[in-house]
Amino acid sequence: MTSKTISYSNAIQSGFCYLLDNFEEVFVLGQGLWSPWYVGQSMRELEVTYGRERIMDTPVSEQGSTGVAIGASLCGYRPIIVHPRIDFMLMAMDQIVNQAAKWSHMLGGQAHPSLTIRGIVNRGGEQGAQHSQALQSWFAHIPGLRVVMPSTVSDARDLLIASVLSDDPVIYIDDRWLYDNEEELEPVVELSLGKIGPKISQEGTDLTIVGIGHSAYQSRVVAARLRENGIYSEVIDLRVLNPMRVETIIRSVRKTGRLVVVDGAWSNCGVAGEVIASVVEKLDVQFLKASPVRVTLPSAPAPSSGALEKNYYISESRIASVCVKLMGDKKVTSKLERVV
Amino acid sequence: MNYDLGDLSNPAKLTDPIDVSGWNTGELIEIYKKMRLIRNVEDEIARLINSGEVKCPSHLCVGQEAIAVGVSYHLRNTDRVFGTHRSHSHYLALGGEPKSLFAEVLGRRDGCSKGMGGSMHLFGGKHGFLGSVPIVGGTVPIAVGAGLAAKKDGHGDVGVSYFGDGACEEGVVHEAFNLAAIYEIPVLFVCENNLFASHMDIHLRQPSDRMSRFAEANRINVQTVDGNDVLAVAKATETLLEKSRKGNGPGFLEVVTYRWKGHVGAADDVDVGVLRKEKDIIAWKKRDPIQRLRQGLVNQRKMDDSEFNAMDREISKDLMRAINEAKKSPYPEQNDLLDYVYA
Ligand SMILES: Cc1ncc(C[n+]2csc(CCOP(=O)(O)OP(=O)(O)O)c2C)c(N)n1
Ligand SMILES: [Mg+2]
What we know:
The complex is a heterodimer of chains A (340) and B (343).
Chain A: E1 5-7, H1 8-22, E2 26-30, H2 46-50, E3 55-57, H3 62-73, E4 78-83, H4 86-89, H5 93-106, E5 116-121, H6 136-140, E6 146-148, H7 153-165, E7 170-175, E8 182-184, E9 199-202, E10 207-211, H8 214-228, E11 233-237, E12 240-242, H9 247-256, E13 259-262, H10 271-282, E14 293-295, H11 306-312, H12 316-326
Parallel strand pairs in A: 2-3, 2-4, 4-5, 5-7, 6-7, 10-11, 10-13, 13-14
Antiparallel strand pairs in A: 1-8, 6-12, 9-11
Helix pairs in contact in A: 1-7, 3-5, 8-12
Chain B: H1 25-50, H2 65-72, E1 80-83, H3 88-93, H4 98-105, E2 129-132, H5 140-153, E3 159-164, H6 171-182, E4 187-193, E5 196-197, E6 200-201, H7 212-217, E7 221-226, H8 230-245, E8 251-256, H9 278-285, H10 289-299, H11 305-328, H12 336-339
Parallel strand pairs in B: 1-2, 1-3, 3-4, 4-8, 7-8
Antiparallel strand pairs in B: 5-6
Magnesium ion (MG) is lined by residues 164-166, 194, 196-197 of chain B.
């Protein structure tokens, strides 16, 4: 680690500090906030710096505490409710989907729940079916919810800040598999969620790889390997899942003619399929050199046994081999064998 | 802070040997052996965690053995029992095989859930153990439903729901209490109140440390007892089940206890606790449910220490054999992943 780099989890922490330092209407509640064990190193000792009135550890009451955050947000505050596992957040679905998402619209645009709901994806380590889910597609399905998934260190901080400063309910999803990634942190930019969308992380001409959260990180790793072997892929980090803006992706596929979407979640009715459908709908098929491909999880809950778990999650070599196959015989060289 | 539980939550109290009068020695020895077995299984799993062989998150119940043993003493294998994230004791007390539990936590195909669940998802259908899961509160209404089915069956069986003080903070649990009360469902709610939900002391989460108040609000019969006195647990269970088996609705057993280990894993320390103090753990170890029963038997000259030691050695030996067999079990097959998704 050089002095200039900072980890993804520390970037989240710095986002919290920025918000709590600069906006007195921000406060945080959720389970485990007084214990770093729950939230990785992303909220260390915030209660010491900002006090337990602003950093509230809650009882085991996901639905109630989410509703409390919505209520405070309707009365001038910008609460952040933290669910240390997205699986636990399911207990709060009524408050998120029926209440927060609908509030503005069903009341004629006169009131806006300006809360941020942070859900953490925490999987692997034989945690099994109820402690491993990545449910971004559920939330992205709902009009009224903005959904973001940062994959870079700077986005981990800046999308958190943008979420909290948005007047809409925002689902901010971070992934513990990204926490130790180190990058240089640029100065804070206060982004407007209504104005940003997918981001090209790496330019290329041969194929387009779209990733989401952790899978965007994996896509960058794979792209670097492919490039060493003569395949130039364009990597796009989806970042904002709802409302989804696909223009950047369409422009890219028009150039490359090939599209791979990687999402560490199930495929049926999922974000990966949505990206492909949105692109194909708007792109003249003559631009496509191959059928678009999804890389997702098997249609099964997460197994506990490590023997099954190791083949369950998406590996970088699996993504690489999908990309190589998509290139057909056009670019296959003997060197490519080493990529996968 | 409201200490409504009085002596029950004060570790300086209730440390005396257990009064065994009126109990048959053979029964007491069986009860002792069950608790000792559970303690030793947990100690072995702790060792397997430390050696890196067990990788799944495991919530050990060391210090809380008397509850499952006392409750199960009055259960039969046609009852329908549901557990939590901390359910090794619930499974073993009903007669679940240690080998199947070891195999499960080791991720093997001979595990009680075929290696698909790990420590947090246990199944023991033939013993009446219908499942444990780590979503807090998740199984409480399910146990009520199993009780409803038992009521329809009409054979006097009951549903049993184990859950913790933390689960009492989930809304669904209160819906379940109300449903059980209004439909007069034969279900036994067993609230293992260990005064903590992961890192948080009960007093930081609720205005009272007494969970029975929720049952009283739903007019459910209540017994609140020392969860480290296995005979008190058994007696209270018997009282509540007598009514439920006759069709007089649910019962609520609040058993006050303390976990000796960290919330999850093998650590013997103060964990990540807010308000959890080393001196409390030391004090609570004096209310050891196993030692208290043993001392009660020794004081009555029913057994002496050398007989107990021989019995303990026998249990350890059996467990070593069970672990070795579990380690020989194969891992799940790749097709298991998809084969178990649908019936
Ligand atoms: C719905 C849900 N919320 C949060 C958690 C995280 N969690 C796991 S165990 C636990 C504490 C539960 O406390 P309690 O019910 O008292 O059981 P104990 O661990 O004390 O046996 C929590 C909060 C969870 N597993 N499920
Ligand atoms: Mg507890």
